[in-house]
Design a protein that fits this description.
mainly alpha; 81 residues; 72% helix
């Protein structure tokens, strides 16, 4: 059993965490480049947020949303649980 857990340890430390080790080395050489990856993630998330808000506005403009007080279980006082 010990060999099995050592195999899992080796797999994670030597193979699966290689991108994180590369990021650590990159941060030591260039702080701006390492944080540029974070900004890339932020830009992708912001673009997804803008797309989602556009889709919500499109459905709202077409009156496709059911706005009845009992349209969803969690709305209204008399919602059955």
């Amino acid at each position: 059993m010990k060999d099995f857990f050592e195999l899992i340890q080796w797999l994670f430390e030597e193979f699966l965490f290689l991108p994180f080790h590369a990021l650590r080395e990159l941060e030591l050489t260039s702080w701006f480049l390492a944080n540029g990856i974070n900004w890339l993630f932020f830009i992708v998330a912001f673009a997804a947020f803008i797309y989602w808000m556009g889709q919500l506005k499109k459905f709202n403009d077409n009156n496709e949303e059911n706005r009845d007080s009992k349209a969803h279980r969690f709305l209204g006082k008399n919602a059955e649980i």
